[in-house]
Amino acid sequence: MTEPLLRATHLVKEFPVLGTGGLLRRPDTFAAVDDVSFEIAAGDTLALVGESGSGKSTTARLAARLLDATSGTVELDGEDVTRLSGSALRRFRGDVQVVFQDPYSSLNPRHTVERIVTAPLLYQQRPVPGGARAFTQALMERVGLDPDHSQKYPAQFSGGQAQRIGIARALAVGPRLIVCDEAVSALDVSVQAQVINLLRDLQREEGLTYLFIAHDLAVVRQIATRVAVMTQGRIVEEGDRDAVFGDPRHEYTRTLLAAVPRIRPEWEAQRRRNAAARTGATS
């Protein structure tokens, strides 16, 4: 059996909280992520979905080592990266990149696109192939931007264009896995579709693996290979995309699906057929 590219095992992330005093005291810590385990095969997309506060973005940051886990492990290609530091951690950062929700807040407004895109290579202490200008222009063209705009600043681009700059920056170091943390949720619906299509094209052509964080199940349906549903810091359901959408087993998953206004009628029809068949089998 092929080893997964990324494996998270019993991840826990606790944050300190202030006690209330008196007889009713809060616990000293709050578990935002509580015993979460999952795997992602190379070339696949695992979508972590759930409501705001479910712990999905914290889990993403643990997987990318932007946060240190309280306990549990994260392995990349069989290597435990949980306690890496120095040059080993820098090498891991080259393998795992992140595309954030708000492109404007994640791109330095004082830097040109060229400086933004080449910054990861400088951090990795790698030479910029072909020079900074040519390298940036090639990546801009790769993500559907005008290569002649490499000397512009983030504020001179639309939200969708700025997110493409974030994707270009992630691609610069040739990552194996990209964590997309609500990467399209701040975009208009038509722009979302364009960015999703770009991510799918890049996955197919570059062999990328995605950990895709989202609350919009209509978006998840377009890109995910597998889906893991989170609530209150735990994964309550995980499976192939079509199985989770067509025959959800957990009540929370069914509630999420019922709340999606743009869900396709055929998905709902399949879900209802499966639910009816399950009810008939148990009656």
UniProtKB/TrEMBL annotation:
> According to the lineage, what is the superkingdom?
Bacteria
The reply to whether Endoplasmic reticulum figures as a keyword in the UniProt entry is: no
Q: Which residues belong to any copy of the ABC transporter domain?
A: 6-257
Q: Using the record for this protein, list the coiled-coil segments as residue ranges, or answer none.
A: none
InterPro entries documented for this protein: AAA+_ATPase, ABC_transp_ATP-bind, ABC_transporter-like_ATP-bd, ABC_transporter-like_CS, Oligopep_ABC_C, P-loop_NTPase
From the UniProt record, which GO molecular function terms apply? ATP binding; ATP hydrolysis activity
Signal peptide residues on this chain, from the entry's feature table: none
Write the record's keywords in alphabetical order, separated by commas.
ATP-binding, Nucleotide-binding, Transport
One GO biological process this protein is involved in is: peptide transport
Which family is annotated? Belongs to the ABC transporter superfamily.
**Name of the molecule in the record:** Peptide/nickel transport system ATP-binding protein
